[in-house]
Design a protein that fits this description.
Shape: elongated
Distance between the termini: 79 Å
Number of domains: 2
CATH class of the largest domain: Mainly Beta
Strand order of the largest sheet: 1-9-8
Structural class: alpha+beta
Oligomer: single chain
Length: 182
């Protein structure tokens, strides 16, 4: 019986040892998770950034020939209700004459509405041309006075150091007079 008792005692100690190892491992994993989680959570976008991930804009008050500027993700977005003359001017430009070759029809969803990020692609300045009194450059669109970049009525770079056209953000028409940017 002595051998049976020793085997039973070893079995009980083995079970206790296994339990203690398992419990210590579980507490260690929970402790590691508690320490690491705040760091991982800090990598998520801030609440104010998520709130700006998309914005809806009512286009109905914008008259033909007018422009507005809205903020999206901390950047100005230019929205222009283009006139027939501006549309025609943008469509008639030969693509091979452009530095950043992009047709007008590829930059708009509806020809009368031009939506683009209002940040010069040279050094990140905000071009002039949104207000009627501001210089619109040599091509009737936008002009960045910092280094002399000229954009046409489609926001395409035509003259100056900027390497690319003004960016067109992702946007969708929710109704005929409302868009969602982002």
């Amino acid at each position: 019986m002595c051998a049976d008792t020793a085997i039973k005692k070893d079995h009980e100690e083995g079970t206790r040892r296994e339990f203690l190892n398992l419990a210590a491992g579980a507490f260690g994993a929970l402790g590691t998770a508690a320490v690491v989680w705040p760091f991982i959570d800090s990598l998520n976008p801030a609440a104010d950034t998520l709130a700006m991930a998309s914005t809806e804009v009512d286009l109905s008050p914008i008259q033909e020939g007018q422009s507005i500027t809205v903020m999206w993700r901390g950047k100005p977005v230019f929205i222009r209700h283009r006139t027939a003359a501006e549309i025609k001017s943008a469509e008639e430009v030969p693509v091979n004459a452009l530095r950043d070759k992009e047709e007008d029809k590829d930059r708009v969803q509806k020809p009368e509405w031009l939506v683009m990020v209002g940040v010069c692609t040279h050094l990140g300045c905000v071009p002039l041309g949104q207000k009627e009194t501001e210089s619109k450059g040599d091509y009737g669109g936008w002009f960045c006075p910092c280094h002399g970049s000229h954009y046409d009525t489609s926001g395409r770079i035509r003259k100056g150091p900027a390497p690319k056209n003004l960016a067109v953000p992702e946007y969708a028409f929710l109704t005929d007079t409302t868009i969602r940017i982002g």
